[in-house]
Amino acid sequence: xxxxxxxxxxxxxxxxxxxxxxxxxxxxxxxxxxxxxxxxxxxxxxxxxxxxxxxxxxxxxxxxxxxxxxxxxxxxxxxxxxxxxxxxxxxxxxxxxxxxxxxxxxxxxxxxxxxxxxxxxxxxxxxxxxxxxxxxxxxxxxxx
Length: 144
Prior knowledge:
Elements: E1 4-5, E2 11-14, E3 19-24, E4 32-38, E5 41-47, E6 53-57, E7 71-73, E8 76-78, E9 85-87, E10 103-104, E11 106-108, E12 113-117, E13 128-131
Antiparallel strand pairs: 1-2, 2-13, 3-12, 4-5, 4-13, 5-6, 6-10, 7-8, 8-9, 11-12
């Protein structure tokens, strides 16, 4: 991976027009999630306890809770703020009361690197991705 330091100390990761390499799959623990910023779009990538990967918008549509910090069970995530549950495959809200999540195709290549497909419409800047463990828009960003 040809990563370079970006603005605000975040890691800038080169990307192709449709696919973004996010880094090694081992960086996301089983049963965990991590937020990445691709262009100006925050994306949460989840790795279930059985190793399946899912990618959705990073913030809950109800009150912008950071979904990567939520509890994962099976193929669902609970928002850490108000416990709205979302199906990671479809993005559908399982508990009602919130809009569905945007989801993105995600896979692992032969080298164990996470590959995320993001439409150009999600990128308002030149294609790149950066990890942001504190990806709240109102919080200062931290280096990973």
